Inverse folding.
């Protein structure tokens, strides 16, 4: 049994490595060679959404936590990157404050902007702050055993609250947000080569995130996360604290969302409250649900597919796309709970039940007859 298990794991690892190689070839060779600069930049934007979706797949698909507020952590990373880029542009022009502040009549740089003028501090903030906020929120929520619908509503309310808060803050751009970035860590964003570099950074980050999620899913922690999703009370009876297990998944998903937001800002060139509110958070969930939340690649491919469909179809049907997106989500949740990743297993099961599956007869092994017991005469027994 041990040999078979090791052989199966080895085959699975080889398949995963082959899959990563194919994905790397498609992202780093095929896409730049076949797509225009505009389409490549658009694909880079979709990859940012896929990074968020990978984290949601871990927290929701494996942990059962419907995270409707990932826009909060996406926005934290995005705004920190935007603030750093704005101050870097202002320093390059020898201005005391960014250009949008001068237009708004703000002559002095706010104190909470100053730390992010440093590139290392900004990078640390992008990596730490979303995870720290998620850890605090997760501790307060999961330790009180808030779950299910109540957790989903609470997380969505946080995203709405953050969007409303940012809308009224002119020192962070207000309703229009932050835009007009000229450089990304010293590289001019107007240069097509630098735009392509951003795509490669997003593609490499996505591959690393998928690899990390796969490792977590296959680890002992991944098994505990699934057990918490299915039988939380039984896991608690076995001596584990389900709250701690949930907090870890929630923090990891927030960590990925913060990184995605930081990449989104230079790729798209703008970040505003409209990009981090309730609607974007729900769009993340829709992509994950359509792709298949319990699988590894389902959330990633679903997020990219939904984002591409939104861009393509909204150009032709600008007023109907939202309804089409809602109908698609209802159909998937109602009839294909496993998402598009579960379509083939479902069809295979229907075909097997409809046409019948030929089952090969199991060979019967006939045991050899036991040797006959020869009775021993009584006189021989007495002689012995």
């Amino acid at each position: 049994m041990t040999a078979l298990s090791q052989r199966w794991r080895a085959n699975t690892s080889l398949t995963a490595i082959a899959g990563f190689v194919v994905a790397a070839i498609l992202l780093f060779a095929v896409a730049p060679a076949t797509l225009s600069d505009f389409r490549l930049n658009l694909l880079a934007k979709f990859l940012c959404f896929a990074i968020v979706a990978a984290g949601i797949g871990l927290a929701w698909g494996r942990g059962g936590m419907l995270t409707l507020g990932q826009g909060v952590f996406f926005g934290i990373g995005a705004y920190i990157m935007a603030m750093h880029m704005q101050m870097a542009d202002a320093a390059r022009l020898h201005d005391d404050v960014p250009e949008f502040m001068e237009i708004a009549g703000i002559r002095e740089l706010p104190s909470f902007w100053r730390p992010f003028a440093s590139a290392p501090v900004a990078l640390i903030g992008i990596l730490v702050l979303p995870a720290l906020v998620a850890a605090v929120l997760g501790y307060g929520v999961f330790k009180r055993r808030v779950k299910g619908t109540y957790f989903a509503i609470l997380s969505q309310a946080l995203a709405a609250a953050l969007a409303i808060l940012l809308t009224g803050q002119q020192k962070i751009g207000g309703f229009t947000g932050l835009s007009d970035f000229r450089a990304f860590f010293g590289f001019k964003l107007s240069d097509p080569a630098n735009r392509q570099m951003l795509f490669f950074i997003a593609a490499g980050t996505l591959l690393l995130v998928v690899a990390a999620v796969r490792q977590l899913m296959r680890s002992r922690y991944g098994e505990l996360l699934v057990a918490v999703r299915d039988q939380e009370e039984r896991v608690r009876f076995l001596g584990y604290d389900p709250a701690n297990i949930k907090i870890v998944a929630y923090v990891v998903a927030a960590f990925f969302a913060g990184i995605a937001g930081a990449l989104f800002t230079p790729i798209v060139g703008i970040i505003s409250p409209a990009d981090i509110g309730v609607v974007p958070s729900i769009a993340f969930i829709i992509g994950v649900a359509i792709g298949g939340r319990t699988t590894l690649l389902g959330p990633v491919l679903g997020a990219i597919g939904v984002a591409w469909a939104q861009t393509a179809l909204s150009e032709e049907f600008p007023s109907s796309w939202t309804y089409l997106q809602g109908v698609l989500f209802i159909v998937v949740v109602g009839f294909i709970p496993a998402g598009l990743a579960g379509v083939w297993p479902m069809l295979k099961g229907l075909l097997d039940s409809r046409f019948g599956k030929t089952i090969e007869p199991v060979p019967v092994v006939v045991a050899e007859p036991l040797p006959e017991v020869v009775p021993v005469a009584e006189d021989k027994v007495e002689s012995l």
